[in-house]
Write a structure and sequence with these properties.
With 193 residues, the chain is an alpha/beta fold. It has one domain: Vaccinia Virus protein VP39 (Rossmann fold, 3-Layer(aba) Sandwich). The protein is 33% helix and 24% strand. The protein is built from five helices and seven strands; from the N terminus they run H-E-H-E-H-E-E-H-E-H-E-E. The protein has a seven-stranded mixed β-sheet, with helices on both faces. Helix 4 (121-134) runs parallel beside helix 5 (150-165). The N and C termini lie far apart (51 Å).
Length: 193
């Protein structure tokens, strides 16, 4: 086998790492939110993490996302602890009336869906502010940003500005990114002390 065909190393899986960080803030009976449901991968992860006695709220504006997520939850035998919400994550405060232990955002567009339908900076900022207001002490949210398209880049800029204003005595904001690949996805972990 020549060196061209050898796999020299593996790139870090940022989405997996995001889940590892979130897992530290979840326990059976917890409350979590998937603010960008998509195909339900994070929803299923959160459902299993909080177990039968926990609750998960999952948001998406696309019917296709709700259908895909519903199928995934059933196929994976997830607990019946998820409320699928066909609405913008910007309206989360209308549905979640209790503190959350964890929340996840994977911004951008629905994988396998219409790439013209993306999260938008204005609704994302409202949703992230709401998530932080809902965050219980000891809780965390992750926000994955996809700067490879114009709206994703704009979201990343606005989010970074906002995160920099959070009181460091109450929140810790950590950004995880691949430095030598500026168009690659990255995420921010926001933990409430």
């Amino acid at each position: 086998m020549d060196n061209k065909n050898k796999k020299i190393g593996t790139m870090i899986d940022l989405l997996l790492l995001q889940k590892e960080f979130i897992m530290r803030h979840l326990a059976p009976g917890g409350v979590a939110a998937d603010f960008t449901m998509g195909n339900g991968n994070d929803t299923a992860f959160l459902s299993r993490a909080v177990g039968e006695s926990g609750r998960v709220y999952a948001f998406d504006i696309q019917s296709k996302a709700l259908e895909s997520t519903r199928r995934k939850l059933l196929a994976e035998g997830c607990p019946d602890n998820v409320t699928l919400i066909h609405d913008s994550h910007a309206n989360a405060a209308l549905y979640i009336k209790e503190p959350i232990n964890a929340g996840m955002f994977n911004l951008g567009y629905l994988p396998g869906g219409d790439k013209l339908i993306t999260t938008m900076t204005s609704s994302t900022m409202q949703a992230v502010r709401t998530a932080i207001e809902l965050l219980a002490p000891g809780g965390a949210i992750t926000v994955a940003v996809y700067p490879g398209h114009a709206e994703g880049k704009a979201e990343g800029v606005e989010l970074a500005r906002y995160f920099a204003t959070l009181d460091k005595h109450i929140f810790t904001c950590t950004e995880v990114r691949i430095i030598n690949s500026p168009a690659s996805p990255y995420f921010t972990l926001i933990e409430k002390i």
